[in-house]
Specification:
The chain has 11 helices and 14 strands. The protein is 28% helix and 20% strand. The strands form 2 sheets. Strands 1, 2, 3, 4, 5, 6, 7 and 8 form an 8-stranded mixed β-sheet that branches. A 5-stranded mixed beta barrel has the order 9-10-11-13-12.
Length: 471
């Protein structure tokens, strides 16, 4: 049996968790082929998402850990009250201006409150993102993953759970975390819920600050680097330039066909900052794989780009239901999945390779101000779920050129088989909209394009030979 110690230089089979890894580097290994989901694996994944249930075994492990840490049953009224106070404090801190946030979750009940309130939603959110990566062909048969700022192990544990539905994929997951309290929770959940010798090996986190950790100690063959809900919490030093430099430091250890995934909350300022960061990274040597598309081959203006994904809400956990048995139950149930993300690559691979064909009679959204109260044709990506209501649906549109936000407005009684794609198409889908009426919304300084019964909405075909992307 090998005796690994440095979690960034070991590639052998996972045999046991407590051991450390040697500092001696290993040779670069050949790239593993992309892992394509089988119909049976798709069925399992879809069934899991349809249930909307946080894994009961993991819920019980969280309950056991809280009981162990506080020395009383987790559902003791005194413990419940302390957890509620910790959750309220975290939520209040989250809505402060970014420069005044602490959001450390590093000691005592702050970590326990995170486990009870945030962990289940972030875990299920990660599963949705992993399914997206798999369907985009970005997972490999053998994966080396690095989770930056892992906290109590949301991402590694979600990877282990997701891979339990796959038949032939394996992964070694490494992580960095500076909080001893988080690492203690991480190890308890890992040792309780992740079997030894399984398809996923989760290494003990390296205890380091992600802003001062030396990426040179990490193996060069990292297939997937994940920053989940961490870059926005860097604090006053977290300017766009500082965050971009941090990502680029870790990107030096990314495999040539590897992926960087950045996930942030859907809150407007944080989400917009992610788009600004994405463009800063694009202007260096990374390619935006998704969700953004540059169908005119130009860079965008992301300063007002608030774009996020939603997924079906999860069912409340037993602990959430217990916390909610009080005068203000809504404060302690966290089931909504909303997040912003960007996927970056080194090899110029993108999800969509579509470019607007030369001679197309469609308008760039950067020119929409010249066509108020006129009907136009346009091609753009659908960059939101419904932002309106059941009577008047609204979807954000982006073609990579607009300086001012543009939204498609769809009265429900105007939905026809010819324009229904604007409603049913998934987030990020490129759509061609023929005959929409332009209005300017003075209150919000935005443009609305009205989808009427006469509007045709289709998914344009990728022209033959249009298989590369210009950054």
């Amino acid at each position: 049996m090998q005796t690994p110690s440095d979690p960034y230089t070991y590639y052998g089979p996972v045999q046991t968790y407590p051991q450390e890894m040697p500092e001696k580097p290993v040779p670069v290994i050949s790239s593993s082929p992309a892992y394509l989901l089988s119909p049976e694996e798709e069925r399992r994944i879809s069934a899991f998402f349809a249930a909307r249930t946080f894994p009961p075994a993991l819920g019980e492990a969280i309950e056991q850990y809280i009981t162990k840490k506080v020395g009383r049953d987790w559902h003791d009224p005194v413990i419940m009250d302390r957890l509620r106070k910790a959750i309220v404090a975290q939520k209040d801190d989250y809505w402060k201006p970014q420069a005044r946030r602490s959001l450390k979750y590093t000691s005592g009940y702050s970590v326990l409150g995170y486990l009870a309130y945030h962990f289940p939603v972030y875990f299920m959110q990660t599963e949705h993102i992993l399914a997206m990566l798999a369907r985009d062909g970005l997972l490999k048969q053998r994966m080396t993953v690095l989770d930056i700022g892992t906290g109590p192990g949301v991402v590694p544990l979600a990877i282990a759970d997701f891979y339990s539905r796959l038949d032939g994929a394996t992964a070694n997951v490494y992580s960095i975390e500076q909080s001893e309290e988080h690492i203690a929770a991480f190890l308890h959940l890992r040792n309780t819920c992740v079997p030894l010798g399984g398809s996923v090996g989760i290494k003990t986190p390296r205890k380091e600050d992600i802003t001062t950790s030396n990426p040179a100690r990490i193996s060069e063959q990292i297939d997937l680097i994940i920053f989940s809900n961490v870059l926005n919490e860097i604090g006053n030093s977290g300017s766009v330039e500082r965050r971009a430099a941090l990502v680029m430091q870790y990107a030096e250890r990314l495999a040539p066909d590897g992926t960087i995934l950045i996930i942030e909350p859907a809150e407007e300022n944080t989400s917009t900052q992610l788009r600004i960061l994405s463009l800063a990274l694009k202007k260096q040597w990374l390619t935006i794989h998704s969700p953004c598309t540059y169908i005119w081959g130009t860079n965008c203006t992301p300063d007002r780009c608030w774009s996020f994904v939603t997924a079906p809400c999860i069912r409340p956990t037993r602990m959430m239901e217990t916390l909610a048995a009080c005068d203000e139950p809504f404060r302690y149930v966290n089931t909504d999945i909303k997040y912003s993300y960007v996927v970056l690559r080194k090899d110029r691979k993108t999800r969509d390779t579509y470019r607007v064909p030369a001679g197309s009679r469609v308008l760039r959204l950067s020119q929409i101000h010249r066509h108020v109260d006129k009907r136009i044709n346009l091609i753009a990506a659908k960059m939101s779920e419904n932002l309106g209501d059941a009577k008047n649906l609204m979807f954000r549109l982006c073609d990579g050129t607009a300086d001012t936000p543009v939204f498609a407005v769809v009265p429900s009684f105007h939905i026809t088989p010819e324009n229904e794609a604007i409603v049913s198409a998934p987030y990020g889908t490129i759509l061609e909209l023929d005959s929409v009426l332009v209005h300017y919304n003075l209150k919000h300084d935005a443009y609305n394009v009205l989808v009427s019964r006469n509007t045709r909405v289709i998914i344009p075909s990728i022209e033959e030979g249009n298989d590369c992307c210009t950054d």
